[in-house]
Amino acid sequence: MAFVVFEGLDGAGKSTLIKGVEAHLQTLGQVVHLTREPGGTPLGEEIRQQLLRVQGDTPVPRAELLLYEAARAQHVERVIRPGLAQGKWILCDRFSQSTVAFQVGGRRLNRKIIDDLNRYATDGLQPDLVVLVDLPVDESLKRMSRREQEKGQGKDRFELEERAFHEGVRASYLAQAAEEPQRWLVLDGLQNPDQLLKKLLVEMEKRGWLAFSSK
Ligand SMILES: Nc1ncnc2c1ncn2[C@@H]1O[C@H](COP(=O)(O)OP(=O)(O)O)[C@@H](O)[C@H]1O
Ligand SMILES: [Mg+2]
């Protein structure tokens, strides 16, 4: 088992890929816990609602950052660490890497402070692998507006941000991947879901993570 985080812009294909990996691991008899940030715990899901709100007392950038970190601390202590201790796979839709991408790359907050807060909230826990589904901003915006039309879903606060914000987020993801190439796998989100799943499974195989019989 391992702790695998999925990152990328909205519409990149994270949810689709996670479900594919989950299904594959389950056919191999593995116990998988699929979770997400912000959220993953009852408290975290309440915080998520406050973070995505578009009306009323919307959080200022520093409050927003601290809410993410509060939800993360709860998630790590109540769900992720216990799950790993029980031998479960943890597949997490967004984690600390999103905070760097959105709050530093998008909102231009101070990186050092965010790294320190991430370390505090996670108590030093880091994913074994971060899968970045990289997508050009244009394609992300296109997929998001399609989703909105199909589901009649309104935009949340991040989807309403302007283009430069999303470009900053994407650039930060790619920079983080370049800083720690052994921890990150960058996939081309323009490929189809089957191709993406196959590439990820090849990487997991290469790391010896799918060789259960030998354990
Ligand atoms: N590899 C892909 N190529 C093209 N479209 C995709 C791909 N993966 C997902 N999609 C479509 O793009 C939209 C967003 O996918 P989703 O997995 O929900 O992304 P995310 O969770 O990153 O926001 C959905 O309509 C989905 O069907
Ligand atoms: Mg999703």
What does this structure look like?
α1 crosses α8, α2 runs antiparallel to α3 (61-85) and α4 runs antiparallel to α5 (111-122). The chain has a single domain, classed as Rossmann fold (3-Layer(aba) Sandwich), CATH 3.40.50.300. The protein has helices spanning 14-27, 42-52, 61-85, 96-106, 111-122, 137-151, 163-179, 193-206; strands at 3-7, 32-36, 89-93, 129-134, 184-188. The chain is built from 8 helices and 5 strands; from the N terminus they run βαβααβααβααβα. The protein has a 5-stranded parallel beta sheet, with helices on both faces. With 215 residues, the protein is an alpha/beta fold. The chain binds adenosine-5'-diphosphate (ADP) and magnesium ion. Adenosine-5'-diphosphate binds at residues 8, 10-16, 143, 147, 191-193, 196.
Report on the biggest sheet: 5 strands, parallel
- Give the domain tally: 1
Strand residue content: 5-15%
- Low-confidence segments, given as residue ranges, are none
Helix content: 55-70%
Instruction: State the distance separating the first and last CA atoms.
Output: 11 Å
Strand order of the largest sheet: 2-3-1-4-5
CATH superfamily: P-loop containing nucleotide triphosphate hydrolases
Please identify the top-level CATH class: Alpha Beta
Tally of contiguous helical segments? 8
CATH topology: Rossmann fold
Q: Could you give a quick summary of the protein structure above?
A:
With 215 residues, the chain is an alpha/beta fold. The chain has helices spanning 14-27, 42-52, 61-85, 96-106, 111-122, 137-151, 163-179, 193-206, and strands at 3-7, 32-36, 89-93, 129-134, 184-188. It has one domain (3-37, 88-206): 3-Layer(aba) Sandwich (Rossmann fold), CATH 3.40.50.300.
